[in-house]
Amino acid sequence: MTESASRAPATTDRGGRPALSATSRTQHRRLREQGSADRADLRAVLGAGFIAHLGLIVDGAPMVLPTSYGFDDEHLYLHGSVASRSLQAEPAAEVCVTVTLVDGLVLARSVFEHAVNYRSAMIYGVPRLVTDQGEKLRGLRCLSEHLAPGQWDYARRPSRKELAATSLLALSLDEASVKIRTGPPGDGDGPDAALNLWAGELPLISVWGEPVPDPALPAGISVAAHVRARVGTPAFD
Amino acid sequence: MTESASRAPATTDRGGRPALSATSRTQHRRLREQGSADRADLRAVLGAGFIAHLGLIVDGAPMVLPTSYGFDDEHLYLHGSVASRSLQAEPAAEVCVTVTLVDGLVLARSVFEHAVNYRSAMIYGVPRLVTDQGEKLRGLRCLSEHLAPGQWDYARRPSRKELAATSLLALSLDEASVKIRTGPPGDGDGPDAALNLWAGELPLISVWGEPVPDPALPAGISVAAHVRARVGTPAFD
User: Fold this and answer.
1) Residues A135 and A213 in one domain
2) Which of A111, A119, A217 to mutate: most B Cβ within 10 Å?
3) Do residue A209 and residue B212 have CB atoms under 8 angstroms apart?
4) Domains in chain B, number
5) In sequence order, what are the residues at sequence separation of 6 or more whose Cβ sits closer than 8 angstroms to the Cβ of residue B54?
6) What was the pLDDT predicted at A89?
7) Is B196 helix (H, G, I), strand (E, B) or coil?
8) pLDDT tens digit string along B170-203?
9) CB pairs below 8 Å between A and B: how many?
10) What global pTM score does this model have?
């Protein structure tokens, strides 16, 4: 995984972190907000989220669209319909896909030090329209199972006609970076600590709720076991 | 609020919805996923979220960055640091800011009809660097109070030096659109209803968790009442 230094902050790698600076304050901050170019970190963030923000250039201006995604070892998969106009206009245009998970608010002693604990992945590349039917089916399955695990085998799979009407984009995971902030605020060892104000993290907890049946559903059809099993479990772990 | 037809789906307005098409199936779908150009809807989405995805063009390619935001009746406020490199290179460049809230998964009878219930706002414009000190302080307060309500009065406010070191961007809310999907899947009245599979919504519930004190905090400092009051309350209402 590479990262273009010209457009993202310098990253560190588990094997070769840049030297930390001299003060303990800066040291802490570095450790709390870290860039990573590790593929395992990228996979962890992509695995935890299910909505991405796709950045395109349309008529010379940026456009950011929310969309679901799937991924395997090599690619991120997106529905082509999201980017259809842009793709028609510029089939070989670069995109940026960002997945962000918010873990909590960082409440500091000073307003200036407030922050957000988050995990974020950014992927750059030129998406490829998937034309091979086998790859298309695998990619769509990836996308479907990432959003709603178990539904590919439970629900009716795409017909030949539906497959033909669906376009799928594959984006290489080769150019990506991850940024994660965890932990308390950075002003615990500075002069503001003497203010004796409460400081810490307010976590954001996201879980799957109780399934709401479609009102059109006939009586006697119970929630599928794989759906029922998600109730109460964390959504972004 | 206007919307450029060349780059976003046609919107409807409460006062003048486009005529719905003939079939009940299409009618349902239209009602479930709606565009809006109502300022009240825009305010509701911006008020419910607190993380935006900012789309910029950097070196000719799109870049999407997560960032916190605040807003008032006229503007969205963003920290200038998020876009600093881009702003230096192209001070009058257009951006797109998207705020998305995920409300649940839409589990249909066919994989093809799966969807996500969400609320999303997109704002387009050329951000303005706020130089007036009064506006800057009001904007920063907006941003701070939207992310962490109550902290502006509780924590230490920015010093003159901190204010000088902070840059603030204001983006007009004049060019924006909102898109919302709610409700069950769209295949409840189609042929797949006969499959007798469970279908409905799996809601995503996000609440504020129990505050985690900074380990550097001396004993005896209790959680501020305005922070305590958020525990267990919905995060994106």
Assistant:
1) no
2) A111
3) no
4) 2
5) A64, B64, B65, B66, B67, B78, B82, B83, B95, B96, B97
6) 64
7) coil
8) 999 999 999 999 999 999 999 999 999 999 999 9
9) 294
10) 0.88
